[in-house]
Amino acid sequence: MPDPAPIKSGFVAILGRPNAGKSTLINRLVGAKVSIVTPVPQTTRNRILGIVNRPDAQIVFMDTPGIHKPLSRLNEAMMGFVRQALEERDLALFIVDATEKFGKGDEFALRLLKQYAPKTILLLNKIDLIHKSRLLPLIDHYSKLHEFEEIIPISALDGDGIPEVMDAVIRYLPEGPRFFSSDIYTDQPERFLASEIIREKVILHTKQELPYVTAVLIEKFEEGETITRIHGKIVVEKESQKPIIIGAGGARLKLIGSEARQELERLFPPKVYLELYVKVEPHWRDNRSVVAELDYRSDSAF
Ligand SMILES: Nc1nc2c(ncn2[C@@H]2O[C@H](COP(=O)(O)OP(=O)(O)OP(=O)(O)O)[C@@H](O)[C@H]2O)c(=O)[nH]1
Ligand SMILES: [Mg+2]
User: Fold this and answer.
1) pLDDT-derived band of residue 3, with 50, 70 and 90 as boundaries?
2) Distance between CA atoms of 173 and 60, rounded to whole angstroms?
C-alpha cells in the first residue's frame, strides 16, 4: 500500500473583541452549531473546538471569549482561555466588527496578538452592514497597524467570504496528522452543550435586563432509550434577578425551557425532559468553585 497522501492539519485560534462574530464564524466554518450566539457581548466563556474534516485537511478551529480587561474571576478565566488558544494555535484568525469605530479595546486586543505573534489572517466581519466604500480605508488602516498574512472581508452571518477564509487557512497550515477521529466535530461533552444551549436562551430572553450575570449548571443528565432527562440550575447573583428570569407567573422561564428543549431534542433525539430552576449565588463570578465548574475540561467540572 502506498502511503496516504499527506494532509494539512492544525489548530486555528479565532480571536477578537466581544461581539465581533467569532462564534457565528466558527459555526459557519464547521457547518454546525458548536458555539452559542447572542447579541450580548461576552457570550462565549470557554475555548470551544469546532473541527472541520476533509479528505485533504483536518482543521481544529478554536472559538474563544472576546478579548477584554478582566475584572472578575470569571473574566480572568475567560482571558485564560484566550491565552491558551494563542499558545496552542498554528494560525490565528483575528476578526473585527467592520461597523465599529477603532478604539481602545481594539488597541488592547492587537497588543495581545502582537505579544504572541502568531501568523494571522485579519477578517473584517459584518460587511453586509456597511457600504463597500468603507472597506478600503479600513484595510489600509489595519495593514499599517500590523503585518497580517491576508485581509479578508466577510459576513459570518450571510456566509460571504467564508470559502476564501477556508482556502487561506488551508494554505497557511502545515502538513500534519489528524488530531481527532474524523467523525467528531467538537470536543464538548453533552452536559456542557446542554448548559450552553440553555444559557443562550436565557440571554436571548433577558438581554436588556441581565447581560452578564447568569451561569447554567447541569445537575442531572440521564440519557435513556426514549428520553433524555436534563435538570439545569440557572445561577444569578441577586435575589432581584430571579423574578426577571422566572417572569410573570413563570411565563419567561417556561419559554426559555421550551425553546431550549426543542433545540436539545435535535441533539438528543427523540425526546428531552428538561427541568430548570433559578438559584441565587451572590458574587458567583468571583467564586472559585462555581467558575471552575464552567471549565468542562478540568477535573472539577460537573
Ligand atoms: N449583520 C451581521 N451580524 C453578525 C455577523 N456576524 C455576527 N453577527 C451578529 O453579531 C452578534 C454577535 O455574534 P457572536 O458570534 O455571538 O459574536 P462573538 O464574537 O462570538 O461574541 P462573544 O462571544 O460575546 O465574544 C450576534 O447578534 C450575531 O448575529 C455578520 O456578519 N453580519
Ligand atoms: Mg462568542
Assistant:
1) low
2) 11
**Is the distance from the beta carbon of residue 10 to the nearest atom of ligand 1 less than 6 Å?**
no
How many other CB atoms are there within 10 angstroms of residue 152's CB atom? 20
Contact indicator for 78, 84 with CB cutoff of 8 Å: no
Neighbours of 266 (CB within 10 A): 10
Instruction: Count CB neighbours of 133 within 10 A.
Output: 7
What the block records as the C-alpha cell of 109 is 486586543
Pocket lining: 128 vs ligand 1, CB cutoff 6 Å: yes
Q: Is 129 in the pocket of ligand 1 (CB under 6 A)?
A: yes
Amino acid at position 115, single letter? Q
Mean pLDDT of the chain: 95
Region for residue 106 given its phi and psi (left: phi exceeds 0; alpha: psi -120 to 50; beta: otherwise)? alpha
Q: How confident is the model at residue 1 (pLDDT cuts 50, 70, 90)?
A: low
Nearest of 199, 261, 252 to residue 74 by alpha carbon = 199
Q: How confident is the model at residue 2 (pLDDT cuts 50, 70, 90)?
A: low
CA–CA distance, 132 with 139 (Å, rounded to integer): 12
Within 10 Å of residue 302's Cβ, how many Cβ atoms?
Answer: 14
Protein residue with least CA distance to atom 8, ligand 1: 21
Provide φ and ψ at 69, rounded to 5°.
-85, 120
Q: Residue 41, preceding bond cis, omega within 30 degrees?
A: no
Which of 105, 107, 116 has the alpha carbon at shortest distance from 13? Answer: 116
Distance 183 CA to ligand 2 centre (A): 24
Pick the residue whose CA is nearest to atom 9 on ligand 1: 21
* Pairing of the two strands 175-176 and 150-153: unpaired
